[in-house]
Amino acid sequence: MANLKVDVEPAEAGFDADRLKRVDAHFDRYVENGRLPGWLAVVSRHGRIVHLGRGGHSDVEAGTPVETDTLWRIFSMTKPITSVAAMILAEEGLLELDDPISQWLPEFASPRVFVKGSALKPYTEPATEPIRVWHLLTHTAGLTYGFHHGHPVDAIYRKAGFEWGTPPGADLASCCEQWASLPLLFQPGAEWNYSIATDVLGRVVEVVSGQSLDEFFASRIFSPLGMTDTGFVASSVSRLASLYVPDPASGRAVRNEAFGRLGTSRPDCLSGGGGLVSSAADYWRFTEMLLRGGELDGVRLLSPRTVSLMASNHLPGHVDLEEYGRPLFAEMPFDGHGFGLGFSVLEDPVKARTLSSAGEFAWGGAASTAFWVDPDEDVTVGFYTQLLPSSTYRLRSQLRQLVYQALVD
């Protein structure tokens, strides 16, 4: 179990200690009025933790307080880990970003694209370009999520059993076969749409490496980095936080037993897009590895050039998602943000109306967890709670404001 503790005085790291207290006061108000069950925030600079705040409960009903070793379902914060896995294989020459994924997943050899019609009677045409590894990493493959409710293809996904999960008994291989049979929203590379692309990427990792996704993660990422509390099953179910949703009438967080079972046993489908459980300490080590150009404590997972490529905006012409993406849900705002290989990338802080730095790369999870890496200021930040969905409150933008108003050097 990785240790998590403050190891530098705020002033030594350029922070105002009194201003950092605003982080705790702000999120404690969410707990006091019942909108959040509990929370934990980690602020680090120059590789040292400058602030560690927590409040509320990991299990409200049991009265269990949030601890520094509480475990959290990180949902889509799994995506950057899967993206790193793919880039490890790329660095070994086992795949290239331009490779068609049908090279390993033949079911994707002849994708068809939705043109018109309805979910019940779609009209499709052949894809003019193969789905490539790069399309999966950048969410430009034409795939989607059933929970979007913005397009007939979303409804086709829901009918096939893909909305907030996968059909019972279906493993990752069979899910990919089903996804390959469904129409694409658009021609590969034509637009950006948040999707199951990273799940498909996880299957590519399995086939290329010859390992199951959990085995690859454990042997190539988690074990080398000392991430002993990260996996598709909680390392300790007693430390796993309960999951909550807002009550439609009162807004207070109420327990959700159905989603709360996630992480308590090995899932049928190893979701590289959203299946992991982790601790704040483990994920801090992951983000520090990224901040340091692929290396941490003498262990190198990626080269600095690879991390730099991943953290660059890959949208054509360096446009932001507002110009290139579909106006649907994603784990970050669209204005001023581009997208790299597995992360959002902040292009224009003014357009994004944020105090963060250009070049920040970040992502979040469905239960309102979030992280960002700011190479310009040598800062990493992680936030953990268990409230579905992440769009309930503006927790992430509020946290950025609170962190950067305290950075005074």
From TrEMBL:
It comes from the Bacteria. InterPro entries: Beta-lactam-related, Beta-lactam/transpept-like, Diverse_Enzym_Activities. Residues 23-398 form the Beta-lactamase-related domain. It is an enzyme of class 3 (hydrolase). Keywords: Hydrolase. The keyword Metal-binding does not apply. Its EC number is 3.1.1.103. Signal peptide: none annotated. Pfam families: Beta-lactamase (PF00144). The keyword Hydrolase applies. GO terms for molecular function: hydrolase activity. Transmembrane segments: none annotated. This is Serine hydrolase domain-containing protein. It comes from Amycolatopsis mongoliensis.
